[in-house]
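Q: Hi! First time doing this. I have a protein sequence and I read that you can turn it into a structure. Is that right? Here it is:
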Amino acid sequence: MDADTLDPLDRQLLHALHLDGRAPFATIANVLGVSDRTVGRRVARLRATGAARVTAVVDNRATGSADWLVRLRVMPSGAGALARALAGRPDTSWVTVLSSGTEIVCLVRAPAGAPAPLETLTRHPHIRDAYAHRVLRHLMNRRWAGRTSALSDDQAAALQAPLSDNAAPIALNDLDRRLLPALAADGRAGYPHLARSVGWSESAVRRRLEDLRRSGAVRFDVEADPALFGFSTQCLLWLTVAPPRLAVVAQAVAGDTETAFVGAITGAANLLVIAVCRDETALYAYLSDRIGALRGVERVETAPITAYAKRVVPALP
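A: Yes, that's right. Below is the predicted 3D structure, encoded as structure tokens:
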């Protein structure tokens, strides 16, 4: 499936699933003015072609875990194999291969207070250097605008899942440790299937998931390649920002339509941005006209993304 085959209804469905990945098909159908069967058939096609996958995302504030951004300098001949190996780890997310073919960047979730997880990540023979940066704070409270602009404000409001801005630490139990990985693999799995998978009653699974969502510990998102929306260029931007301007610059960048992620990190560069643009010309314009004009930005390192080996956020540390 490519951008030419992603029609307006597909875009509306993806927007709806971004708002609530577990929204019943009947609810989505009612808001969009189509039949339940049409919604079910379209979502099944999007999933079968790999265009979209709903997954559970666990808030690390709730689980008491920490995110580390790891940069690995690698030998070009081993980049592909290493990216696949990292993608197979349960603690990694958005494993990316950069355009040079000599660097892989991934996000690793670890228990809070634990050291940077470099020891287990650097055993591969093709790794030359490794750097770990703690993600101090996620600074973007919305999703990339390119994939969430197909619904009207009224439609979006009717589909928006209840949100919590105060995710409090919770004690994970045995049910969570079975349930959350299953939901990370398939965020739309039905309660009977989940109950069979985890060995608990359907009512217990339903109640626990409702509690997790209400507390803000778990939300549901849909993975979709920006290329499906006609955006072919993705780039990591490592910004070095004067500390007094860090919050202002982060807020400004987080509001840009080109931005998919903003995070404050440790290291020489203190702000990481993932920019999504239609092409290289649009990326150049964004860098020169927007980023270059922000007061306080002292240095910018750009790293175009060649491919994603993994996009899903780990369910548990």
